[in-house]
Design brief:
Elements: H1 5-16, H2 22-29, H3 33-49, E1 56-58, E2 62-64, H4 87-100, H5 107-114, H6 118-134, E3 138-142, E4 146-150, H7 153-168, H8 173-181, H9 185-202, E5 204-206, H10 208-226, H11 244-253, H12 264-276, E6 279-282, H13 290-307, H14 314-333, H15 343-349, H16 351-360, H17 362-368, H18 374-390, E7 400-404, H19 409-422, E8 427-432, H20 434-437, E9 446-449, E10 458-461, H21 468-483, H22 492-502, H23 508-524, H24 539-542, E11 548-551, H25 557-571, H26 576-589, E12 594-596, E13 598-600, E14 614-627, E15 630-639, H27 647-657, H28 660-668, H29 672-683
Helix pairs in contact: 1-3, 4-6, 4-7, 4-8, 7-10, 9-10, 9-11, 10-12, 11-12, 12-14, 13-14, 13-16, 13-17, 14-18, 16-18, 25-26
InterPro entries: Ascorbate-PTS_EIIA_comp, PRD, PRD_sf, PTrfase/Anion_transptr, PTS_EIIA_type-2_dom, PTS_EIIB_2, WH-like_DNA-bd_sf
Protein name: Ascorbate-specific PTS system EIIA component
Keywords: Cytoplasm, Kinase, Phosphoprotein, Phosphotransferase system, Transferase, Transport
């Protein structure tokens, strides 16, 4: 026995709580008293038929159910007379009927299914023709075959997958599925059961929504094969024929739920959907695919770097990311669509978190060779956001900043890196050109710019290369702006007088500089190292005949760094451990040293083996890849003994590299003299 929709709704209302009066039922349902009494009678008939006590009434409680009734036991018979389709519902029904039906279809069939007039159906068909045309499909009619759809079979599958996702996640899914698959309920339930068996065999658990979608997708595939709509062979799918998933698909389609003869291509199509569906559990995460594991660890490391946040239990987070990403990888690689219903909400509520997540994912995208769709990237944002919330970390209460620098990528990267280190509590979103700033979509509170800008945000104008005195000045300005106070200046004059009272000072100016640097970095909570040079050397004093090398090629970027640094090891300005530290830093943090196309400036921290300030340069005739999309021919090793003495030479080097023509000249050089001539030109220029 079935209930009509109205009676079923009333029963479900009573399931959850008692209702004090007939008037309250009228208010909650919008029904008249007579309609309610009629529906109550139907409800009681259904209850008695299923051996439940009827609805009762007590003055102190009102109307209530004496027995608890499981939700899935309420059998509702939906009818066209009790349900009015929306325009979107009608279009979905008509579209699926044309795609899946094996009998000729006329306007009458669509009228009968949706309960609307001929003109309304014709209007819906016209709209569908336009939608189909945008996908390269054509809906046409003939007296012999009725309404059919022609076009690429893969596109048709894509459309069906999208429609299934929309319909099965719609509040009206029960009525729509009845229109399309009425009479096939037992076969679809059997497919669902087989998929649950496959879950156990593979040791995985699909999300409820995806399991439901798979059942309908595989049944729809059987319908399509039955009407002759088969896929063309795709050689890229063939490796999956050797998988356990393929064998399980073969076993599934040999059951009574499937009536068509599936080709190998169709079995592979189902196999790929099996491996690409979202899941909540994987039997052995992170053990099956070492490449995925390493890439996801790099993504989390990059996220930490960009946000200045320490992710707790990072291995556990990577396990969760792996369980999600493994099926997502196959979806993206083989072009199976997937809709994330939370994408718009993520973009709207967490724009900065999503932006920084997308930047973190570039490592993954570069390695895999394709860009993650927004729907897939939004899932990573959700995972990172949930993890931050779990550990009580918030990004939305931090000040957000952009860095504006028109001086080229080399200077921009140096400035951005310096500011991140100087202000770890500020969330730096992007480095922009002046032109890009006007159209930047995210909100920000602060702007650090090397040129003056008209902006509503708080503006700090900074030099492109920050020296210690610049850092001190900027630190005070930012502290005053954000917190209303600044760290007081250190009394260097007082210290100089105190030292001169008990000791002989041989170089007062240099001592004053080092005291300023030491006291500033103590306040900032960092370390400093003694400056051995009395003056900051120019670029030409560091890059000399002894430290320049020209070579045709190397096999790896690690070898390039070792060769480039070898003159410094021989001169005794760095230890061997510094070379190792540079390589390990890139292996851990990625090819961040590639500051501009074809140019890398590898370096490490002073305490990792720098004995004195030095530089060396290796020019290669053939490129070596620091990453798949980062070829390099100029490797300039920087060994800074402190945070100050190398800045003059670094400014000159940055100015030199900001001109693409200079890089071309250096790459065209055939001997050291030609390289030195370019270097000396910029060593003579003073860049402030």
């Amino acid at each position: 026995m079935f209930l009509d929709e109205r009676s079923a709704s009333l029963l479900k209302l009573l399931q959850h709580s008692s209702i004090p009066s007939m008037g309250e039922i009228e208010n909650q349902t919008g029904l008249t008293r007579r309609q309610i009494q009629y529906s109550l009678g139907k409800v009681n008939d259904w209850l008695q038929f299923n051996n439940y006590a009827p609805v009762q009434y007590k003055r102190e409680l009102g109307y209530f159910l004496p027995d608890k009734i499981p939700e899935d036991e309420i059998s509702v018979k939906l009818t066209k007379q009790s349900y009015v389709f929306s325009e979107k519902d009608r279009e979905q029904v008509v579209y699926l009927m044309i795609l899946l039906s094996q009998e000729p279809l006329s306007v009458f069939h669509f009228q009968s299914a949706t309960g609307v007039s001929r003109n309304t159906v014709l209007s819906n068909l016209q709209r569908l023709k336009e939608v189909a045309s945008e996908m390269g499909l054509t809906i046409q009619y003939s007296k012999q075959f009725g309404y059919i759809i022609t076009g690429d079979s893969r596109v048709k599958r894509f459309v069906i997958e999208q429609l299934l996702h929309e319909v099965l996640n719609s509040p009206n899914r029960q009525m729509i599925t009845q229109c399309i698959w009425s009479g096939f309920e037992e076969r679809i339930a059997a497919v669902h059961e087989k998929l649950e068996h496959i879950e156990k065999q593979l040791g995985i658990t699909f999300t409820d929504e995806r399991l439901h979608e798979l059942a309908y997708l595989f049944f729809s595939t059987d319908q399509l094969i039955g009407k002759g709509e088969e896929l063309d062979q795709d050689p890229s799918w063939l490796p999956f024929a050797e998988t356990k998933e393929f064998a399980l698909i073969e076993a599934m389609i040999n059951t009574a739920a499937f009536q068509s003869r599936w080709s190998q291509t169709e079995k592979l199509y189902a196999t790929l959907h099996l491996v690409s569906m979202n899941r909540t559990k994987d039997r052995s995460p992170l053990r099956d695919d070492q490449m995925f594991r390493e890439l996801l660890l790099q993504v989390t490391d990059e996220f930490e770097r960009l946000t200045f946040v320490h992710l707790q239990d990072k291995d556990q987070l990577c396990e969760q990311l792996y369980v999600h990403f493994k099926p997502a990888f196959y979806r993206i690689k083989y072009g199976f669509p997937h809709v994330n219903p939370m994408m718009e909400r993520v973009n709207k509520i967490y724009p900065e978190l999503h932006h920084l997540t997308r930047k973190s994912l570039k490592i993954l995208e570069q390695e895999l060779g394709f860009q993650l769709p927004e729907d897939e990237a939004a899932y990573f944002t959700i995972y990172f956001g949930g993890w931050l919330q779990r550990q009580g970390t918030r990004l939305d209460d931090r000040k957000k900043a952009i860095v504006v620098c028109p001086h080229g990528i080399g200077v921009s990267n140096i400035l951005n890196y310096t500011l991140r280190e100087l202000f770890p509590t500020i969330l730096f979103l992007d480095v922009l050109s002046v032109r890009d700033t006007a159209e930047y979509p995210l909100d920000y509170d602060l702007v650090f710019s090397s040129v003056f800008l008209n902006t509503e945000a708080t503006l700090f104008v900074v030099p492109p290369i920050l020296e210690e005195r610049d850092k001190q000045k900027l630190n005070k300005q930012v502290m005053q702006e954000l917190y209303g106070y600044a760290v007081p200046d250190s009394d260097v004059d007082g210290l100089m007088k105190l030292i001169s009272k008990y000791a002989t000072i041989h170089d007062a100016n240099q001592l004053e500089k080092e005291l300023q640097a030491a006291l500033y970095t103590q306040t900032a909570g960092t370390h400093t190292y003694a400056v051995k040079e009395a003056e900051k050397p120019v670029l030409g004093e560091l890059l000399t005949t002894q430290t320049l090398q020209l070579k045709q090629q190397v096999d790896t970027w690690q070898e390039a760094i070792e060769i480039a640094a070898s003159p410094l090891v021989e001169l005794g300005t760095v230890k061997e451990q510094y070379v190792t530290a540079m390589i390990e830093s890139i292996e851990k943090n990625g090819p961040y040293v590639v500051i501009t196309p074809l140019v890398a400036i590898p370096h490490a921290r002073p305490e990792e083996g720098v004995l004195s300030l030095s530089m060396s340069l290796l020019k290669l005739d053939e490129t070596v890849d620091f990453a798949p999309d980062k070829p390099v021919q100029l490797i300039i090793v920087l060994a800074a003994a402190d945070s100050d003495s190398h800045l003059r030479a670094l400014i000159q080097l940055t100015t030199l590299l900001n001109e693409p023509a200079n890089i071309e000249k250096m790459l065209e050089a055939t001997d050291k003299e030609q390289l030195l001539e370019i270097i000396q030109t910029y060593s003579k220029e003073e860049t402030e």
